[in-house]
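>> received
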Amino acid sequence: MPVTVKTFTSSHDAAAALSDRSARYLGGGTLVMRALNEGDISISTIVRASDQAMTRIDATGSRITLGAGVTFARILAERDLTFLHAPARSIGGPAVRNMGTVGGNLFAPVPYGDFTVAMLALDAVVSVQGGLGGREIALDEFLQSRDRQAGTLVLAISFAKPGSADAFHYRKIARIKPKGGAVITLAAHLPMNGGRIVGARVALGSMAPTPIRARAAERALEGRSLDASTINAAAAAAVEGTAPSDNALGSAWYRREIVGVHLRRLLSGQE
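>> returned
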């Protein structure tokens, strides 16, 4: 089946072209080209956009904006984004990081999508362009409806920069290192005020069909100091609300058993 490639200078026009259910947006190509090479006959049109705004990084202020077309290699080259180097480095190998994009990672299926876990812990907001214009949507809401996003183009993702280097925590558990799919991915943002956690955010990957917030763990952390008792309570609550599946990297049972162990290690700073 022939595939048509359409390139637009306007993100609005590119979004309109995506209203065709057989159309897919091509960013870095790490997902779409794999699907095409594997013979996915549901794709008949490839949509591209040359809008330079989609490749911009604004990291100068208290709020950071990453264009959907920003690659992980570019993030690793940004000194102002040092706190995101660990999640960016955990994405595939050098070839994938050179091509893979922030926007594309939002659609990566389990056991991938690790950077999205970090974004979810940072309470990120997604800017999208649709047939009715542009809008912003909270990332957790976007993920819940991402399979119903026909006719919508992701433009950028933005979030508040962590107030301190030790407020953000990230860990990917993989069997094949350094670039294997995740058994579990964990990220936490724990802002402190007066020695207590205010606005706790914990996110998990490979514990549901999309990255999810560990809300029970967040409640266990909120308003408390980050001591052993608090960490143990969060670890015990980590599995609540999860729905992992079985795959070649691990069973659902195994993921439920270890998620609390790794959250405890993450929050304790253990290797």
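>> The CA atoms of residues 76 and 85 lie 5 Å apart.
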